[in-house]
Write a structure and sequence with these properties.
The protein is an alpha+beta fold. Helix content is about 30%, strand content about 25%. A six-stranded mixed β-sheet has the order 13-12-11-14-10-15. It has a five-stranded mixed β-sheet with strand order 3-9-8-7-6, sandwiched between helices. The protein has a four-stranded mixed β-sheet with strand order 1-2-4-5, with helices on both faces. β4, α2 and β5 form a beta-alpha-beta unit.
Length: about 400
């Protein structure tokens, strides 16, 4: 069950002028399940995207990167149930074929279609099944279909993850709506499993690119469920320009900062939603590392804690076995540690002070924190001014069960 996360309601997801969506059931993995999403972008839209750095990146990632460089994007084609990863040249041809099928039905260039896939790795993409439902999807394109689309991109997710925000820019109402999916194989190195965010604001291409990278840095690139980076990770940010605001062309302008703040709020919500719905998760964990020599050093310590199976299973068991956290900090690879300056906190409870057990710590105090569904772990390194933050979850019995039975 997701940790303090509720599913979005249909009326909470606002349409974005210049964006239409549709879903269809191709039966890629399970008959009758919505597993294909088509997103249409209005002419003149700008698109920014970031992709996985996994060396075995999926065929649709390679094709999407290629197409994005060649022409303006007009459609996103997404399927769940099959990752089309580890499929070699046949996978590339399958991704091209899906794009060509959209092109033939819409009269738009094939390279204006960006393909995305998520699901089982190493299996051939059933192109004919996807092609068969495209006419239906095109006929059902509507600005009101964000809710259905958020459900159709899910795999092991237990809840859809989507949100809308609005703000005023120079007297014009601007809308941002986004959705993400992901529950396992989550340790992004750029974004998350899949995320799609659209705004009707007018934003120049260079500013949109910068906004996406800044938003990713404080959201999707701060989460981990299990330390595994997917072959298919992608995040797309679209600006349709339909809100009639003056185009934002300076990232340092007041309007750019206001739009970026709203985007940050939305991406942070979507990123945390992925962790809250982590496979088998029962706890949501914030790990803050402070007084490091660099933000990179702080992240290194935070991720070592977040990826420790011993820490994650103790969190699941509500066991205040703080020695596991101490050990993770110690093996994080930081050189020239002055242990006498290190302090560690569970919530507001100091468990380690100056590199040794805090004088006033008791098991009862630690237990009160560990019993909560949301826990903050704070590490003070005492060696600089930098700090950073990572969000993760625990490891439960269900994580093993879900992944042991993933293909069955």
């Amino acid at each position: 069950m997701a940790v303090n996360l509720t599913a979005p309601q249909p009326d909470e997801l606002l349409p974005v002028a210049g964006i239409r969506l549709a879903t269809a059931s191709a039966g890629i993995k399970k008959p009758g399940r919505k597993d294909v999403v088509l997103i249409e972008l209005a002419a003149g839209s700008h698109t920014a995207a970031v992709y996985t750095k996994n060396a075995f990146c999926a065929a649709p990632v390679l094709v999407a990167k290629q197409h994005q460089k060649q022409t303006a994007s007009r459609f996103l084609l997404i399927n769940s149930g099959n990752a089309n990863a580890g499929t070699g040249e046949a996978g590339m041809q399958a991704a091209y074929a899906c794009c060509q099928a959209v092109a033939e039905l819409t009269g738009k260039p094939a390279d204006s279609v960006l393909p995305f896939s998520t699901g089982v790795i190493g299996q051939p993409l059933p192109v004919s099944k996807i092609e068969a439902v495209l006419p239906e999807a095109i006929a059902r394109l509507s600005a009101a279909n964000w809710f259905d689309a958020a459900h159709a991109i899910m795999t092991t997710d237990t809840l859809a993850k989507a949100k809308s925000v609005q703000l005023e820019l120079a007297g014009q109402t601007v809308t941002i709506t986004g959705m993400s999916k992901g529950s396992g194989m989550i340790r992004p190195d750029m974004a998350t499993m899949l995320a799609y965010i659209a705004t009707d604001a007018a934003v120049s291409q260079s500013v949109l690119d910068e906004m996406l990278h800044q938003a990713m840095a404080q959201s999707f690139n701060r989460i981990t469920v299990d330390g595994d980076t997917s072959t298919n990770d992608a995040c797309v940010l679209i600006a349709t320009g339909q809100a009639q605001n003056s185009e934002i062309s300076d990232i340092h302008s007041t309007e750019a900062r206001r739009l970026l703040n709203a985007l940050n709020d939305l991406t942070r919500y979507l990123a945390q939603a992925v962790v809250r719905d982590g496979e088998g998760a029962t706890k949501f964990i914030s790990i803050a590392v402070k007084q490091g020599q660099s933000a990179e050093e702080c992240r290194q310590v935070a991720y070592t804690i977040a990826h420790s199976p011993l820490v994650k299973t103790a969190l699941f068991a509500c066991d205040p076995n703080w020695g596991r956290i101490l050990a993770a900090v110690g093996r994080s690879g930081i050189s020239d540690f002055d242990l006498g300056k290190v302090s560690i906190y569970l919530g507001q409870v100091c468990i380690v002070d100056g590199g040794q057990p805090a004088a006033d710590y008791t098991e009862e105090k630690g237990q009160l924190v560990m019993d909560q569904p949301e826990i903050e772990i704070t590490v003070i390194l005492g060696r600089g001014e930098a700090e950073d933050l990572v969000w993760t979850c625990d490891f439960s019995y269900d994580y093993v069960k879900i992944n042991a039975e993933y293909r069955t």
